[in-house]
């Protein structure tokens, strides 16, 4: 499997030139502005991608889940930050074991009982925690202000935990459109995080970090003097969803290149249509739009079940036959990557490497 | 991990009593009616499930893709039938290799050029093929009647291929509602398959099998004297989607039990809501409805991103706290199973076995 056209389909392809450009763009942007760069590994779940980011200047790697972080640790990725609270006796025991072998690991917390259990399990090892604050989204985290202060005070009393800062992710800001509204949204959210940090520090509790931000908000968060580090994820790959959030110059978001595609084969050719071998098991389906063919303007992909997609060729610029290969930009990169065991890293049409998605499915 | 509550979440659980009941129900139904039973492995992708079905009387196992079939063959599962055409030089070479080591394997075809390539590659080994006919769905297969006959005639001239019958799957029939409309739909589709078989046989070409059918249509297809075998898949697990297709006694389809659930943990508890650790990476999202909590009537699950789901507790019969575990029926079983590496097989609350989903992601 030396070349693009040798790969069995469906397969996940990474254009290395575009990927390296995306990584360099983000790393340089944050370096110039003095922000730490801890990109989110939930997007790629791939130790080789994490390593490329660290080579470019990242201080570590976020993980959505403990099992994901364990995989990154197994591959020697430093500076782990787990953005979902670790709940329950067994997971807490695993978290403490991870903190022992990778002492710079950070864990998010938003619940007093959980914090106390984590402390009890931590013993002498010590565990570094971030208070996760809930920025409008009503998902995870404690409310900013006094509820966050209250949890910080509990942590300050606990011998085996160290508060290192605030996890400040605003899930809605990332995809707020247009560009100006996005700035207002993230600036407003981050102001609450910054005020909360000041409140905690005025209480005499050290709270050095504010970490958060996304591919959609990095331009604004990186100009915010209160933010200490950013944790964008999708910029390494991009997807249709992020392409639509709008940039300073119009409705297309052009800061990063589409580096990730899924390649399929035409497996059947009923009159007027081409059927490709990629359906619900080849693309995530959580967005209202469908995969976009890379090189076939005017042709729409339609879902055709678990295993197939259907292209209406009425307005196709060229005919298609059984055996033709077609690439698509996925609607949403993270859950699409989570369907595959490997990324084929291409330099032009040459397969330069096969990168295992080692944390695929590691949601536990 | 001996018990249900020890399993790290999110995890895929199988209630063995319900599963065994589903398997026994389908196997007995088809045995009494003299139909061969070749259940579809694309649902479970799990050699242990395939083996349980064979123990119950199945003659083999369908696979949606070549790579899936290769995994089943690696695990000694006989009677493989691959329901998507095998396209391109490399896959054809793999198909021939599979046919050599598992000579009872059958492959679906719908394209003359592909049939000729398959013949050229097959050489002395010989390959058994089914003509796939397109039953309204406009997806894969040739049209019934003379187009299918034309392809059968080509196959009859080719030395290394043997026509074994017709692949007759009507993708729309499976979920046609209500019950009576479903009968009309599948009977109409299968009548076309049966006429096509007669047409081919009148031409002097042997065409012994008609295989097709689904969890939704098995009652009708099994009464159809022209059908020789059925290939239902989802009945082993069931899901919300199949529960809604309607039965003879009303809008609920009760022939099979919900055997498959995803267990999650409450990881955050903002006012009025419980956040669980299962989102787009824990459930497939290809249906318009959301996962259904098993034991929490009146409470709706809402998507909250890749990693989380949100339960509105306004009408909850009980309070929930961080650490509580909640199980959900998935909207659609096949692509949900494809997200996990293993099935935890439970007898009551005891983990009786951990079954690797060995063909997970094997779509190539």
Question: How do you describe this structure in short?
Answer:
With 364 residues, chain A is an alpha/beta fold. In chain A, 30% of the residues lie in helices and 21% in strands.
Write a structural description.
2 copies of one chain form a homodimer. With 364 residues, chain A is an alpha/beta fold. Chain A folds into 2 domains: 4-10 and 254-356, Beta Barrel (Lyase, Ornithine Decarboxylase, Chain A, domain 1); 16-237, Alanine racemase (TIM Barrel), CATH 3.20.20. In chain A, 30% of the residues lie in helices and 21% in strands. The first copy, chain A, has helices at residues 16-32, 47-55, 66-74, 89-101, 112-122, 146-157, 179-202, 218-221, 240-243, 333-337; strands at 11-15, 36-37, 61-63, 80-82, 106-109, 127-132, 161-168, 209-212, 229-230, 260-268, 273-276, 292-293, 301-303, 309-312, 325-329, 342-347, 350-356. In chain A, strands 1, 10, 11, 12, 13, 14, 15, 16 and 17 form a 9-stranded mixed beta sheet that branches. In chain A, β3 (61-63), α3 and β4 form a beta-alpha-beta unit. In chain A, α3 (66-74) packs parallel to α4 (89-101) and α6 crosses α7. Chain A is elongated, with a radius of gyration of 22 Å. The two termini of chain A are 33 Å apart. The interface between A and B is large, with 61 and 61 residues.
CATH topology title of the largest domain in chain A: TIM Barrel
Put simply, the count of helices of chain A is: 10
Q: What is the number of independent domains of chain A?
A: 2
Task: Look at the structure and give the CATH class of the largest domain in chain A.
Answer: Alpha Beta
Largest interface: A-B, 61 and 61 residues
What is the architecture of the largest domain in chain A at the second tier of CATH? Alpha-Beta Barrel
The proportion of residues forming helix of chain A, as a percent range, comes to: 25-40%
List SSEs of chain A in N-to-C order: EHEHEHEHEHEHEHEHEHEEEEEEHEE
**Unreliably modeled segments of chain A:** none
Q: What is the makeup of the main sheet of chain A?
A: 9 strands, mixed
Shape of chain A: elongated
Strand content of chain A: 15-25%
Which structural class best describes the helix and strand composition of chain A?
alpha/beta
């Amino acid at each position: 499997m030396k070349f693009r056209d040798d790969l069995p389909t469906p397969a996940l392809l990474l254009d290395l030139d575009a990927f390296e450009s995306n990584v360099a763009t983000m790393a340089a942007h944050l370096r110039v502005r003095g922000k730490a760069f801890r990109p989110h590994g939930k997007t790629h779940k791939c130790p080789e991608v994490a390593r490329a980011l660290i080579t470019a200047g990242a201080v570590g790697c976020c993980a959505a889940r403990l099992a994901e972080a364990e995989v990154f640790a197994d591959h020697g990725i430093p500076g782990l930050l787990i953005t979902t609270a670790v709940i329950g006796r067994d997971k807490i025991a695993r978290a403490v074991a991870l903190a022992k072998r990778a002492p710079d690991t950070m864990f998010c917390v938003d619940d007093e009982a959980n914090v106390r259990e984590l402390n009890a399990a931590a013993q002498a090892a010590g565990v570094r925690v971030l208070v996760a604050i809930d920025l409008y989204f009503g998902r995870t985290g404690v409310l900013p202000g006094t509820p966050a202060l209250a949890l910080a005070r509990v942590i300050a009393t606990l011998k085996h935990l160290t508060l290192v800062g605030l996890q400040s992710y605003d899930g809605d800001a990332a995809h707020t459109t247009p560009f100006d509204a996005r700035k207002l949204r993230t600036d407003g959210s981050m102001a609450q995080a910054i005020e909360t940090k000041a409140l905690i520090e005025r209480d005499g509790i050290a709270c050095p970090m504010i970490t958060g931000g996304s591919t959609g908000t990095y331009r604004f968060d990186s100009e915010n003097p209160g933010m200490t580090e950013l944790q964008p994820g999708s910029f390494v790959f991009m997807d249709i969803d992020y392409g639509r959030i709008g940039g300073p110059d119009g409705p297309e978001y052009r800061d990063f290149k589409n580096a990730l595609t899924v390649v399929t084969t035409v497996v059947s050719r009923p009159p007027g249509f081409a059927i490709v071998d990629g359906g619900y098991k080849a693309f995530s389906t959580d967005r209202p739009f469908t995969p976009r063919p890379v090189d076939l303007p005017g042709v729409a992909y339609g879902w055709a079940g678990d295993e197939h997609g259907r292209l209406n060729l009425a307005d196709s610029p060229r005919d298609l036959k059984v055996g033709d290969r077609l690439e698509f930009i996925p609607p949403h990169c993270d859950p699409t990557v989570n369907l595959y065991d490997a990324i084929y890293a291409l330099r032009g049409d040459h397969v330069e490497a096969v990168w295992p998605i080692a944390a695929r499915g590691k949601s536990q």
